[in-house]
Design a protein that fits this description.
The complex is a heterodimer.
Chain A: E1 11-24, E2 29-44, E3 49-53, H1 60-67, E4 75-80, E5 83-84, H2 90-97, E6 100-103, H3 117-126, H4 134-147, H5 164-176, E7 182-186, H6 194-211, E8 214-219, H7 222-228, E9 231-236, E10 239-245, H8 249-252, H9 256-263, H10 270-275, H11 306-310, E11 316-317, E12 323-324
Parallel strand pairs in A: 3-8, 3-9, 6-7, 7-8
Antiparallel strand pairs in A: 1-2, 1-4, 4-5, 9-10, 10-12, 11-12
Helix pairs in contact in A: 3-4, 3-5
Chain B: H1 2-18, H2 20-28, H3 32-54, H4 86-122, H5 124-138, H6 142-153, H7 157-183, H8 187-194, H9 199-236, H10 247-254, H11 263-290
Helix pairs in contact in B: 2-11, 3-4, 3-11, 4-5, 4-7, 4-9, 4-11, 5-7, 6-7, 7-9, 8-9, 9-10, 9-11, 10-11
Classes of the chains: A alpha/beta, B mainly alpha.
Chain lengths: 331, 298
């Protein structure tokens, strides 16, 4: 397979950093920083699904929120449609605001308990400057509900009268009401039953085909991401350690962390499962407040060398859209 | 068949959730005291509304020939030192107490909620400024504050209500502020800002409706406090002016005749006590129904 020539990326993130201050005392003096995201770069191309995987606390949600400017990054560039939106004020961001949407992990907390389904969707629809009349808004709400596989008769219901899957569909409908270009899905299925997970994942794919959406798909479940994503980035402690095509991830993963993650995935094939040997990582994830010097993964890596302890590895291309941040991988 | 079953289940579910009936049930389940108290509160409200029709006298009608009469067929509770019918004045007193209590709590709730919302949502300098102001306000004992402000705003029902309201504002501010701080971390607030909703609209559409239960709970416990303060002020002579039949005024006037004509002070005193106790019990009940998490916090 040759290196595919890509068109311009829809979203380009360069050296993104998001530090949260730790404060104490009366004057809120900052004594340290939580380096949630520490200099990561990636590109998302139109119509693709970019997966972001990592364990809890590694900064994937923060990355997603910075990418669509729900959070203002501490440093770095977020280039959307050729414009750096990382530092834009709320009013300057306005033309892009509705094109960048977010779908939440928690289908319960993301819907206002005092708003009916109709009111939730209408709020999102009428903010669109083109739509004005009540009839048009009404039609659009029905259309959105049908699009996400909900019955338009559910309009008068309140969130507490719906199941988790239905709520998640409603959350998706709200995001779609804005005619988004890029949708960040922040662990959209991890709060759902496995059977419902499959339905929602399929809904995402269907919508992508129908509406030409681009996803940044965040999850901690490699199996779900592999099913959804075209390319997968693996994050560890605020850094991307590997970016790889999802078709190749099982055979060609190079970073020791990715390999360890993959070895934890159970398979349904009995013989494969018997052969599977798990790589158990030693130790704990270091705190993002004081990270180890050099490669963040070195205290748990069995291949770590002196270089790993001192120099932080950059992301290097090893061919076929495959990048790894590891000193021990030969180019 | 399956569909019908699903619909039936949905109806059952929504009934369980919609539950005004269920709320009434938990309210009255609290016991006989709650039932009696709610009945009393309703009776007091009815008295306040219909008092002109309940007695043939007006509360200001003097008859010096009939002063300080014991109970009789014409005057069930006798007359006071100016020959006014005590029962009439006691009934009209309910009107004044309830109006001051509700009016002052209402305006305190509106102002307090607005300030709390602003402080909670803007945080930053404005937020901490408002909250430090509230702290300063809370450190002044309410009765002292009211005593200072009462002459400024005038000793009418409206003036006294405003003054009592001012003393109640900070508790609303604190309550709503705390509520907003926790509510604004909800994903639906983020979602609203992502779809391009303005801050003001988020405040109005998402944060305010979710604060209302707390404000209602606060309000119910506040009315009785306001009534107590009103009676206190009237009693020490800086509240509503004397000819007005406020209970506090009547108690302080009747105090001079406590030994010879005890009913002059005792009748309004008992009314005041009954109203406040029943309001407190009802307020407790409403709090338990609306927001069980607040039990023991107010």
């Amino acid at each position: 397979m040759a290196e595919t020539v890509r068109e311009n990326p829809l979203l380009k993130v360069e050296q993104l950093k998001m530090y949260f201050p730790l404060t104490k005392g009366l004057l809120s003096k900052t004594y340290s920083w939580v380096k949630a995201v520490d200099g990561i770069s990636f590109e998302i191309y139109p119509n693709e699904t970019f997966g972001l995987v990592g364990e809890s606390g590694c900064g994937k949600s923060t990355t997603g929120k910075c990418a669509i400017r729900v959070l203002q990054p501490t440093e770095g560039r977020v280039v959307y449609k050729g414009r750096d939106i990382a530092g834009l004020s709320k009013s300057m961001l306005k033309p892009y605001r509705r094109e960048l949407q977010l779908i939440f992990q928690d289908p319960y907390g993301s819907l206002n308990p005092r708003q009916s389904v109709f009111s939730i969707l209408k709020e999102a629809v009428v903010l669109d400057r083109e739509r004005h009349t009540a009839v048009e808004a009404n039609e659009r709400v029905d259309e959105l509900l049908t699009l996400v596989g909900l019955d338009p008769d559910m309009k008068s219901r309140y969130p507490h009268e719906m199941s988790g899957g239905q709520r998640q569909r409603l959350g998706i409908a709200r995001a779609l009401a804005c005619n988004p270009k890029l949708v960040v899905c922040d662990e959209p299925v991890s709060a759902l039953d496995v059977s419902i997970q499959a339905q929602i994942v399929n809904l995402f794919r269907e919508l992508q085909a129908k509406l030409g959406l681009t996803y940044l798909f965040i999850a901690h479940d490699l199996a779900v991401v592999r099913h959804m994503a075209d390319r997968i980035a693996i994050m560890y402690l605020g850094k991307i350690v590997e970016v790889i095509d999802s078709d190749h991830i099982f055979r060609e993963a190079l970073h020791p962390y990715t390999v360890a993650l993959l070895s934890a995935l159970p398979t349904t094939d009995y013989y494969q499962e018997r052969k599977r040997s798990r790589i158990i990582l030693e130790g704990e994830v270091p705190s993002p407040v004081n990270k180890p010097a050099g490669c963040a993964f070195h205290p748990r890596c069995k291949y770590a060398t002196e270089t790993c302890r001192q120099v932080s590895p950059g992301l290097r291309n090893v061919g076929r859209n495959h990048c790894v941040a590891c000193h021990n991988v030969a180019v | 068949m399956v569909h019908d079953a699903a619909v039936a289940k949905h109806n059952r579910l929504s009934k369980r959730h919609s539950g005004l009936r269920e709320k009434c049930h938990t309210f009255f389940k609290r016991g006989i005291l709650t039932k009696i108290s709610s009945a009393l509160v309703i009776i007091f409200i009815l008295i306040a509304i219909f008092c002109p029709y309940l007695t043939p006298y007006t509360p200001y009608e003097q008859s010096l020939r009939n002063k300080l009469k014991p109970w009789s067929k014409e005057h069930w509770l006798g007359t006071d030192n100016l020959g006014r019918d005590v029962l009439t004045r006691v009934l009209y007193g309910a009107r004044i107490s309830i109006v001051t209590g509700v009016l002052s709590s209402l305006w305190a709730a509106v102002v307090g909620a607005a300030l709390g919302l602003t402080a909670g949502y803007s945080r930053g300098f404005l937020g901490s400024f408002l909250m430090r102001l509230t702290d300063a306000h809370l450190s002044i004992p309410p009765l002292i504050l009211v005593m200072v402000l009462a002459p400024i705003f005038g000793r009418t029902i409206l003036g006294i209500s405003i003054v009592i309201g001012i003393s109640a504002i900070p508790s609303y501010v604190r309550m709503v502020y705390g509520q907003v701080l926790s509510l604004r971390e909800n994903d639906y607030v983020t979602a609203a800002s992502v779809i391009g909703q303005s801050n003001f609209k988020i405040l109005l559409k998402h944060l305010l409706p979710n604060c209302i239960p707390v404000v209602i709970v606060m309000f119910t416990s506040n009315v009785s406090t306001a009534i107590t303060i009103e009676a206190n002020l009237a009693y020490i002579g800086i509240g509503i002016r004397p000819p007005t039949p406020a209970w506090g005024v009547m108690i302080s006037e009747g105090y001079n005749y406590l030994v010879s004509y005890p009913h002059l002070a005792i009748a309004p005193g008992i009314m005041l006590m009954l109203l406040i106790i029943s309001l407190n019990v009802v307020g407790d009940g409403i709090r338990d129904v609306i927001d069980p998490r607040l039990r023991g916090k107010l």
